[in-house]
């Protein structure tokens, strides 16, 4: 069952620009140039219930604009967007009851109120039954350790604490879908882990659909079944992480520890990319040779103590994809 349907979705912005170098009185005399910015330029995808989808792409790719259309904050210029079968911008209140939203850069909590009171307000606004509220609060506070700062005004929370609070708050009313825009931006490793664990757990326990945008490959690898890569307002990849690894990661690194540093070291396949004493990092292409072939070749000529095949680095692959802009 599709909980999200997006078809040929577009959002253009009109920007007015004056030619550079114009100052003072001339400014008001010269008409600014009208530029159409195609922030989202015809994207299509569906999401089924319970998926965790990561939307990634470089800065300015159109990720936040997409989330804003999905959550009803922005009206599309063209195309179809349906969330839980409804057009989000036309049914904002109904839609809000069924979704949870967190924008990492902006708070949805009440800045001057203790967190507890923000939570109470959310409970009232969403008319959350006491039983559900108590149950959710108990689970959330356990994983996110909210009790430590529940009586602190939001403005005094650290970024990590605030994000934990925001994410917990967005799920109090048992939404069917949550949208997180950069939920781990600026957080330390421990806070990131806690948030990822929490998202994973809520997804597994309650089958909540999760859509998140991120720059963080850790978020992607730990959380997402599927990634959608956006660049320049267009989707350039939509699929599993494993598939992308398979297609684009033909290269592997074999790290070899030799008993002694080999003299007159020679290689007929692959190439050394790093050397640390008796250890060498050898890069090879899977199409050209296999790891066993390489190991056989090396062990026939030199005495090997140990070796390790390195996992493909998703960060490396994604960087490669941005550079090549494949379609
Ligand atoms: N309200 C707006 N007015 C004009 N341009 C905008 C507006 N919002 C976003 N943009 C532009 O649209 C593009 C996509 O922005 P955004 O969706 O925020 O990207 P991302 O979240 O992927 O970094 C950027 O070039 C941005 O400058
Ligand atoms: Mg953004």
TrEMBL record:
Annotated Gene Ontology MF terms? ATP binding; ATP hydrolysis activity
Q: Name one Pfam family in it.
A: ABC_tran
Q: Where is the ABC transporter domain?
A: 4-257
Q: Which keywords accompany this UniProt record?
A: ATP-binding, Nucleotide-binding, Transport
**Keyword GTP-binding part of the UniProt annotation:** no
Keyword check for Transport, yes or no.
yes
Sorted alphabetically, which InterPro entries does this protein's record hold?
AAA+_ATPase (IPR003593), ABC_transporter-like_ATP-bd (IPR003439), ABC_transporter-like_CS (IPR017871), ABC_transporter_ATP-binding (IPR050763), P-loop_NTPase (IPR027417)
* Protein name (Swiss-Prot/TrEMBL): Sugar ABC transporter ATP-binding protein
The species is Anoxybacter fermentans
């Amino acid at each position: 069952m599709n909980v999200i349907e997006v078809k040929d979705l577009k959002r253009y912005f009109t920007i007015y620009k004056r030619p550079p170098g114009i100052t003072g009185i001339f400014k008001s005399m010269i008409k600014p140039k009208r530029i159409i910015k195609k922030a989202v330029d015809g994207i299509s995808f569906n999401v089924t219930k319970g998926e965790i989808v990561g939307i990634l792409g470089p800065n300015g790719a159109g990720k936040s604009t997409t989330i804003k259309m999905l959550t009803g904050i922005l009206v599309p210029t063209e195309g179809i967007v349906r969330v839980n079968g409804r057009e989000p911008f036309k049914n904002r209140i109904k839609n809000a009851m069924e979704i949870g939203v967190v924008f990492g850069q902006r708070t949805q909590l009440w800045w001057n109120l203790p967190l507890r009171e923000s939570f109470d307000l959310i409970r009232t606004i969403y008319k959350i039954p006491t039983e559900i509220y108590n149950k959710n609060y108990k689970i959330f506070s356990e994983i996110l350790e909210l009790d430590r700062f529940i009586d602190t005004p939001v403005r005094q929370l650290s970024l990590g604490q605030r994000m934990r609070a925001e994410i917990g708050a967005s799920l109090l009313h048992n939404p069917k879908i949550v949208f997180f825009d950069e939920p781990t931006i600026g957080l330390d490793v421990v806070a990131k882990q806690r948030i990822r664990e929490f998202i994973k757990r809520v997804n597994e326990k309650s089958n909540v659909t999760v859509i998140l945008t991120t720059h963080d490959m850790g978020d992607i690898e730990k959380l997402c079944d599927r990634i959608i890569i956006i660049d320049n307002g267009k989707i350039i990849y939509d699929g599993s992480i494993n598939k992308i690894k398979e297609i684009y990661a033909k290269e592997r690194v074999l790290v070899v520890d030799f008993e002694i540093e080999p003299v007159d070291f020679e290689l007929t396949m692959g190439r050394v990319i790093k050397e640390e004493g008796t250890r060498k990092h050898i890069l090879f292409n899977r199409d050209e040779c296999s790891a066993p072939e390489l190991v056989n070749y090396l062990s026939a000529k030199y005495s090997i103590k140990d070796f390790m095949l390195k996992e493909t680095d998703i960060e490396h692959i994604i960087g490669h994809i941005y550079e090549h802009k494949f379609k």
